[in-house]
């Protein structure tokens, strides 16, 4: 009979594509993942992956099993959440999924306050750019710049963040000040990849674009800020991140781009005391900046 402890190794390799990445996700060594996966395949009497020198691809049986194993994962997580929902103790771990930028500016101050008030609560912080599918990936709550389309989750707007265009004086001395309404022609642009934020490739903070000269695409705003500070080009950055940076100059200050920031939480967890404490600390941190 299949058990979850075996299936989770299969699921990690299916998601990650390599033993090394799966081992990192599971917090075990690579040899353990390979050994557990081989034992799982032996028990089933069939291969779950087609192995290549660089990656693991699902076999036909593996593809058939994937949806069922994900259902197992959902069931296990639902049981854990329901068990945690009745926990009124202010201790234990809370897993937060967010972006590196929001983590630096808002989550870290919230955690400082949380540590002072509830030292028995610990946090696992998972950073990415895409919206985390917290139903499947095990985070207790997420803070994101896009609203998930899932009626089963509790979703609350934390803030609306202002973004603007920035460059360095050194870049402007070399390339000249851009002219409003000329589509930033003749300038180097630093942007999120088109598949992540397609609207920026048509309208870059109020400036319409036509065949933009994008010299760097990056999925991290912190790295886009670093690239802007290095004089590589013009970046679209959060005002809270860039306005206080003496290396950066705001271009067209009246041009603003707005991003809603959302808190996403499983309903099963809203009654857990430690989760409520974390949510309160996060709300306080955002309201300190945005009222």
TrEMBL record:
Q: Which domain of life is it from?
A: Bacteria
Among Pfam families, the record links this protein to: HTH_1, LysR_substrate
- Signal peptide limits: none
An example molecular function term from Gene Ontology annotations? sequence-specific DNA binding
Keyword DNA-binding carried by entry: yes
- Per UniProt, which keywords does this protein have? DNA-binding, Transcription, Transcription regulation
One biological process term from GO is: DNA-templated transcription
Using the record's annotation, list all stretches that form the HTH lysR-type domain: 2-59
The UniProt similarity line reads: Belongs to the LysR transcriptional regulatory family.
Record PANTHER family:
HTH-TYPE TRANSCRIPTIONAL REGULATOR, TRANSCRIPTIONAL REGULATORY PROTEIN
Specify the protein name: LysR family transcriptional regulator
């Amino acid at each position: 009979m299949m058990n979850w402890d075996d299936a989770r190794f299969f699921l990690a390799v299916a998601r990650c594509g390599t033993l090394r990445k799966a081992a990192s996700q599971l917090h075990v060594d690579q040899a353990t993942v390979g050994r557990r996966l081989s034992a799982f395949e032996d028990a089933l009497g069939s291969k779950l992956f087609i192995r290549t020198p660089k990656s693991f691809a699902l076999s036909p049986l593996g593809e058939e099993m994937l949806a069922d194993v994900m259902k197992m994962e959902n069931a296990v997580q639902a049981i854990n959440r329901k068990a945690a929902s009745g926990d009124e103790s202010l201790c234990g771990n809370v897993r937060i999924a967010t972006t590196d930028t929001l983590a630096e500016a808002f989550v870290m101050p919230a955690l400082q306050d949380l540590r002072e008030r509830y030292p028995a609560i610990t946090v696992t912080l998972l950073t990415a750019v895409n919206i985390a599918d917290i139903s499947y990936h095990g985070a207790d709550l997420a803070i994101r710049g896009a609203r998930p389309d899932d009626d089963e989750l509790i979703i609350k707007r934390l803030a609306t963040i202002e973004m603007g265009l920035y460059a360095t004086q050194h870049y402007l001395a070399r390339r000249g000040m851009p002219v409003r309404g000329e589509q930033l022609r003749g300038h180097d642009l630093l942007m999120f990849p088109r598949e992540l934020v397609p609207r920026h490739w048509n309208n870059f903070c109020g400036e319409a674009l036509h065949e933009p000269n994008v010299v760097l695409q990056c999925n991290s705003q912190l790295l886009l800020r670093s690239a802007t500070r290095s004089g590589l080009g013009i970046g679209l950055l959060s005002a809270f991140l860039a306005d206080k940076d003496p290396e950066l100059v705001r271009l067209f200050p009246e041009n603003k781009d707005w991003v809603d920031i959302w808190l996403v939480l499983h309903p099963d967890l809203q009654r857990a005391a430690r989760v409520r404490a974390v949510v309160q600390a996060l709300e306080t941190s955002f309201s300190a900046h945005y009222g």
